[in-house]
Amino acid sequence: MDLTGKIKVIDAEQQVSASFVKRDMVISTDEQYPQHIQIQFTQDKVDLLDAYKVGQEVIVSINIRGREWVNPQGESKYFNTIQGWRIQKVRKEGEVAETTAAQQSAPFIPNTEFKEEDHDDLPF
């Protein structure tokens, strides 16, 4: 599932335990009644947010996670987390993507040594 919105908040990285790190962000949707949605990035995905800043419009790919916790009195409590796993900048209409060196190629040069008898290689 994807969410589209403008970045409102990017929190600092938090080391929750020796083996768990997280980073939260909030995006605001562009609707009649905007929603402010907190999205959590964990482990190796926290670094994805380094390339973004508040105010940018983004598309965030998410998973919804749920878990149960039983308190000392034996009562079950349920918690949901919106977990981000990919983020990309929204491209505006008419915006030209930057061309990287890997995308550039040599110009097409047609074969000038073409012979008609080489053309007919079909088996029928």
What's the layout of helices and strands?
Elements: E1 2-10, E2 14-17, E3 20-28, E4 36-42, E5 57-70, E6 76-89, H1 116-119
Antiparallel strand pairs: 1-3, 1-5, 2-3, 3-4, 5-6
Describe the structure in brief.
With 124 residues, the protein is mainly β. The protein has one helix at 116-119, and strands at 2-10, 14-17, 20-28, 36-42, 57-70, 76-89. It has 1 helix and 6 strands, in the order E-E-E-E-E-E-H.
Protein model, in words:
The protein is mainly beta. It has a single domain (2-91), classed as Nucleic acid-binding proteins (OB fold (Dihydrolipoamide Acetyltransferase, E2P), Beta Barrel). It is 3% helix and 46% strand. It contains one helix and six strands; from the N terminus they run E-E-E-E-E-E-H. Strands 1, 2, 3, 4, 5 and 6 form a six-stranded antiparallel β-sheet that branches. Strand 2 and strand 3 (20-28) form a beta hairpin. The longest helix has 4 residues, at 116-119. The radius of gyration is 25 Å and the shape is globular.
Number of strands: 6
Query: What does the largest sheet look like?
Result: 6 strands, antiparallel
Query: Count the helices. How many?
Result: 1
Shape: globular
* CATH level-1 class: Mainly Beta
What's the CATH architecture? Beta Barrel
Rg is 25 Å
CATH level-4 homologous superfamily: Nucleic acid-binding proteins
Overall pLDDT = 83
Can you write the helix and strand succession as a string? EEEEEEH
Helix content: under 10%
End-to-end gap: 50 Å
Low-confidence stretches: 96-105
